[in-house]
Known about the structure:
Alpha-Beta Plaits, four-stranded antiparallel sheet, globular
Amino acid sequence: MSVTVFIRYQLDPFKRAMFEEYSRRWLSIIPRCGGKLVGYFMPHEGTNNIAFALISFESLAAYESYRARLRRDEEGSANFSFAEENKLILAEERTFLRKVEP
Length: 102
């Protein structure tokens, strides 16, 4: 059974441009580490401090392997540090979803 990780970010609204830079970096890192990136979604109208990401995996075990590879990846590690040092993300929630099939 495949799973999709739905990540909800609460951002510092004054650092949205930096968060967008952080998101763009993941566009090449995530696939390289084994995730199928559906996309990152930035605030456009309305709420200015919430962003989302969707990443799919073949299974929860594949997700766990991906997380380990991501932490060992030089660019991935640097991107995590970029977000932490700049305090871009105030809160992060992860929900694991499965697609409804007929």
